[in-house]
Here is the input.
Amino acid sequence: MNEALMKKRTKEFAKNIVRLCRRLPDNREGKLIGNEIFRSGTFVAASCRAACKTRSKAEFISKLSIAEEEADKTLFWLDLIKEIKIVDNQYCSARLLL
Here is the structure.
């Protein structure tokens, strides 16, 4: 995947995470989970963007590794939201988010 496509896809992912957070209930669990998934989901795009500005291959790999970790955390929160049925499953599909 080239730099422009990676930036575009991860930014779209972040926007979809924001949209999902808007659908979470306004209660304690919705706010706590919303904060976590908002942070990790948007950080994926920020890390990928930072990776595109690195000066070395090692630094690039390091930044992408951080993005991968945050993506995995985001997947955990999506699974949790789906399993405890906080919102409709249609909003939690990783396929829809990417």
Summary: The first helix runs from residue 3 to 23. Residues 39 and 74 are 9 Å apart (CA to CA). The chain has one domain: 3-97. The radius of gyration is 14 Å.
